[in-house]
Amino acid sequence: MHNAQTPDTHRPRRIVSIFTGNAIQFTGIVLGSLLLWISIQPGSAGVRISAMIGGYLLIYFNSHSLLHYSIGKLTGINFKHYSIGGSSHASSYPPGVRNLFERLPFFSAHTDPSSMKNAHQYAKALMFAAGITGTVVLCTVASFIVYHADAPGGSALLIFNMIWQASSLVAEM
């Protein structure tokens, strides 16, 4: 999430319009949900595990900025565009993971500076909190669904998710 007071700490790979960014991220969440559904259907364990991992990752990569945008718009904050590039919090991760997260295709929503200046403090707080909170909730729901459906690897995903999301919450503080 970037605004006028938060300088970019990495170079985005691509700038996309709000419409395009929303369409890509929404499609990613829908495809992720479809893959999770496939992972809980009868069939080959390999296909189910691959679908589970792919679905989880699509939801993880596509929810954060879309939730910043959605809650921001609901509270009256306007946005200029999205950028796609490495994590803006890559320095929060350990060295091996840091290098990876600097290069992964994360979306970042860029607010309109005048809109942020005029936004109520509660609107800003809700918009900033929406990204991590929503990502934690969606990924946790996804991992509980595959665990509850007894999908192959579902318990491992649930454990991984709990550890990952707890560390993500700490990194965001």
Give the percentage of residues in beta strands.
5-15%
Q: List low-confidence stretches.
A: none
Query: Percent of residues in helical segments?
Result: 55-70%
Number of H- or I-type helical stretches: 6
Structure report:
It is a single chain. With 173 residues, this protein is mainly alpha-helical. The chain is 65% helix and 9% strand. It has six helices and three strands. The protein is globular and about 55 Å long. It has a three-stranded antiparallel β-sheet. The chain has helices at residues 18-39, 45-74, 95-101, 113-118, 121-148, 154-172, and strands spanning 14-16, 79-85, 106-111. It has one domain.
Outline of the structure:
Helices cover 65% and strands 9% of the residues.
Key phrases:
globular; mainly alpha; 173 residues
Chain-wise SSE layout:
Elements: E1 14-16, H1 18-39, H2 45-74, E2 79-85, H3 95-101, E3 106-111, H4 113-118, H5 121-148, H6 154-172
Antiparallel strand pairs: 1-2, 2-3
